[in-house]
Amino acid sequence: MKRVLLFLAAALSMTVASAQTISYEGDITILNSPIIYDTEIVYEDLKVNDLPVDEFLQTMDEKFREAWSTEIVPFAETIGYGMPTCINRKNVLDPENPTYKIVLTLNSLELGSIGAIFNPFATRKTGGSIIDGKMELFDAATNDSVLLITFDKIQGESDFSDSMRWALAYIDLAKKIKRTAKKAK
Question: How many CB atoms lie within 10 A of CB 169?
Fold first, then answer.
């Protein structure tokens, strides 16, 4: 019985991993060398749990709505702004003198849930946030697009807090981009 459960858990994790996709247009190997960057995060058409942000927030209680703007989004953005440093530790965030501007556009966010943490048969990813969107790298001097990375169904690990699950999805995205850039050599 134990082997059957382990097999099912492995099959589920492979299915989740295979559903996550990253594609790119341009020279992704730029990310293998250190860059000086500025970052902007765009939420124009963001849907949270398949609802526009305003509609999603209306389904939540007042305490969550307040936490959304004061805790959840600011914490996730901190990780989002630092994501290029997760891709390459030598990258430097410098809004005053960037070589590149990175625009991270988030189209879809599923916040996930904490329920999986209490399930002994769940994987670390079960209940994690899932993000879809794109990351575009622009030459700061010319404003020309140098690299476009699109990502779909990137899932972070599970955690107790909504903001941490969202941040862990950004971290997983950074790891996948780093791996893709290294393979592209």
Answer: 28
Q: Compute the distance between CA of residue 17 and CA of residue 103 in angstroms, rounded to an integer.
A: 25
At 75 the pLDDT is: 92
In the chain, DSSP finds a helix count (H) and a strand count (E) of 5, 8
In whole angstroms, give the CA distance from residue 139 to residue 21: 25
pLDDT at res. 120 = 54
Per-residue pLDDT, 124 = 59
pLDDT, tens digit, 9 for 90 and up, residues 65-103: 999 999 999 999 998 888 898 898 999 999 999 999 999
Q: How many CB atoms lie within 10 A of CB 62?
A: 7
Residues in a beta bridge with 47 = 52, 108
Amino acid letter for position 40: E
Return all residues near 58 (Cβ < 8 A) that are at least 6 apart: none
